[in-house]
């Protein structure tokens, strides 16, 4: 019996996850609502003055994006591990690395991309000038790709553990520090109207490193977690 | 080539006995070096022309900072060996490293804070080296937390080993990413290519302390490794023979 092509299997995984998400929109919308609420708390809790908000906007945007993507990670592997889907991935004869990369890509489509698209709205509320939005969007695209990949490793590792939640953030947040620093830096430069090429290149480098290595580590972690 | 000598390191009873034999060879030189370096550093070395006697905390601060990083490297190497060659003893080494490494990192942060208060006027600044060291502490905590949350020892071993290796890839990235901030931490004065920027009476105790702390880590690692092996092999028959 010949196995279907590797790419077809990956496309199938993407289609399946998108369909599942469409049937349960609440799960997709929760992290986005969380992102909006957290950022909008700052004008209320700190100051409504736009000039002051603009100064902290880079940090607020990125910390909120980091926490929102952390919230979404819980659902990345957990349910598929419980109902046996991940085990079928492992025994399917397809490279687990690629299938998990496809799953992570879908996860990014459902969290990272919408987070990025919400940034103009949320950034506007924090007094970010319109001209900076292009730079902020490109930084967020690259940054959320890395966050999803790093998160996939953490979600895979916590499969074997009894309690996921807090541990997942303890594992993932230190690894996500570079993304946070480069991302906030790029946003800061964009708001100031300076060139943000350097932090964007670094964000891109982290994303490339993540695409290369994170699926391998996630596959190793999922195999251990499923035993 | 004959590899049997290497395979012996995969056998818990052999490593247990070897670790017991080696412990005093690490512990005694460590004790002598640390005591000697304390005398040399606290009494013999001259006060610094700017920092006065305050600089003497370097004799604890720099070696523990060095060990915090070095132990992570040892731990990740052992974890990698355990993962690749499925060597249980290597996983036991990694597990024994984590606690010691985390404590040395805490000591380096605390002594650094005590040093920072009189010299910089503040206990803490968000400086690259401090921040990187703090993140290193979180990596240790994540490693220990993951181990503690998985009941099955073999799964805990392999899952934490993957995490340790991911951390290795990320450590340089973290290191360089935090370099974005300007530093007020002084530049390295010992690990330089040209001559060290310290007179000999100050430098010699520091080097002795570095070696002493490293040997102390070796001794503690061996003791903890023996305890870890006993815990893992508690149902094995060789332990009964060994302990009676």
Give the terminus-to-terminus CA distance of chain B: 37 Å
Gyration radius of chain B (Cα, Å) is: 20 Å
What order do the helices and strands of chain B follow? HHHHHHHH
Number of DSSP-assigned strands of chain B: 0
Estimate percent helicity of chain A.
over 70%
Beta strand % of chain A: under 5%
Helix run count of chain B = 8
Structural class of chain A: mainly alpha
Outline of chain B:
globular
Give the number of domains of chain A.
1
Count of strand segments of chain A: 0
What would the average pLDDT of chain B be, to the nearest integer?
85
Q: What would the principal axes of the Cα set say about the shape of chain A? A: elongated
Poorly predicted sequence stretches spanning 5 or more consecutive residues of chain B: none
Low-confidence stretches of chain A: none
N-to-C SSE series of chain A? HHHHHHHHHH
Helix fraction of chain B? over 70%
Main beta sheet strand tally, sense and closure of chain B: none
Hey, which two chains have the biggest interface?
Answer: A-B, 28 and 28 residues
Topology:
The complex is a heterodimer of chains A (227) and B (244).
Chain A lengths: L5 H18 L1 H21 L4 H33 L2 H7 L4 H15 L1 H14 L7 H25 L7 H11 L1 H16 L4 H30 L1
Helix pairs in contact in A: 1-5, 2-3, 2-6, 3-6, 3-7, 3-9, 5-7, 5-10, 6-7, 7-8, 7-9, 7-10, 9-10
Chain B lengths: L3 H4 L4 H33 L13 H28 L2 H33 L7 H22 L3 H26 L21 H33 L4 H7 L1
Quick structural summary:
The complex is a heterodimer of chains A (227) and B (244). With 227 residues, chain A is mainly alpha-helical. Chain A has helices at 6-23, 25-45, 50-82, 85-91, 96-110, 112-125, 133-157, 165-175, 177-192, 197-226.
